[in-house]
């Protein structure tokens, strides 16, 4: 005599699909890839999301929509990140990325050319430095493409981590919202400093 199968509960992966995750809130490894990805991007809307993102939260809800299908990486485009690069990453408190876009172009130039020539206006005008000038232009264009293509994804990853941490802390909503605003939001002071440094360095290059 065969025993009847034990019914599954709502939190045990019922066959009607009433749950998409494990008990701890992480994606169930038994789910198909597309279902695990949906769980990974859950909560990326609403008041908490808006509190973290700050200005233009509704815009970033649309920008992050492609990551619902593949949160690992989907090429998107952010004009602000492309045009302002380190300043934009500082503005969005992506400090490690901002530092990377500050130093990596110069490092790439030295590694690819083997030259430590400071590309001032006078150096750019020398015929023997035309190859270096073209290389610098190529690196600059590559940096623009990288910043524009990665900006949304890097901000998405930071937002997702902050929202997950807020859930883990289980604080009252009255404390969670200010915390998300403080951790996320924007950094105007950092942008002002970055712009000041850029203007000073540009002036020094033009004067040289």
What does this protein look like?
By secondary structure, the protein is mostly helical. The protein has a domain at 76-207. It has ten helices and no strands. It has helices spanning 33-40, 46-53, 57-63, 79-84, 86-91, 95-113, 121-124, 130-169, 173-183, 188-207. Helix 6 (95-113) packs antiparallel against helix 8 (130-169). The chain starts with 32 loop residues before the first helix and ends with a helix.
Helix and strand topology:
Elements: H1 33-40, H2 46-53, H3 57-63, H4 79-84, H5 86-91, H6 95-113, H7 121-124, H8 130-169, H9 173-183, H10 188-207
* Radius of gyration, whole Å: 23 Å
Overall shape: it is elongated
Strand tally: 0
* Helix count from the secondary structure assignment: 10
For the report, how would you describe the main beta sheet?
none
Measured distance between first and last alpha carbons: 93 Å
Poorly predicted regions are: 6-26, 34-39
Average pLDDT reading: 80
Q: Strand fraction band?
A: under 5%
Q: How much helix is in the residues?
A: 55-70%
SSE series = HHHHHHHHHH
Oligomer: single chain
The helix-and-strand class reads: mainly alpha
Describe this protein with a few key phrases.
62% helix; mainly alpha; 208 residues
In a few lines, what is going on in this structure?
The chain contains 10 helices and no strands. With 208 residues, it is mainly α.
């Amino acid at each position: 005599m065969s025993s009847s199968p034990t019914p599954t509960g709502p939190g045990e992966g019922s066959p009607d699909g009433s749950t998409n995750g494990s008990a701890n809130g992480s994606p169930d490894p038994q789910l198909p890839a597309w279902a695990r990805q949906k769980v990974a991007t859950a909560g990326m809307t609403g008041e908490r999301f808006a509190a973290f993102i700050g200005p233009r939260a509704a815009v970033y809800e649309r920008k992050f929509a492609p990551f619902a299908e593949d949160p690992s990486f989907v090429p998107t485009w952010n004009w602000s990140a492309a045009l302002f690069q380190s300043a934009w990453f500082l503005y969005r408190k992506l400090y490690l990325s901002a530092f990377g876009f500050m130093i990596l172009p110069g490092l790439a130039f030295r590694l690819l050319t083997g030259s430590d020539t400071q590309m001032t206006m006078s150096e750019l005008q020398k015929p023997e430095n035309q190859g270096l000038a073209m290389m610098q232009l190529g690196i600059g264009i590559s940096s623009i493409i990288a910043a524009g293509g990665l900006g949304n994804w890097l901000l998405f990853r930071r937002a997702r981590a902050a929202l997950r941490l807020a859930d883990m802390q289980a604080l009252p909503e009255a404390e969670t919202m200010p915390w998300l605003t403080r951790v996320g939001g924007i950094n105007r002071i950092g942008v002002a400093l970055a712009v000041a440094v850029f203007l000073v360095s540009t002036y020094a290059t033009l004067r040289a």
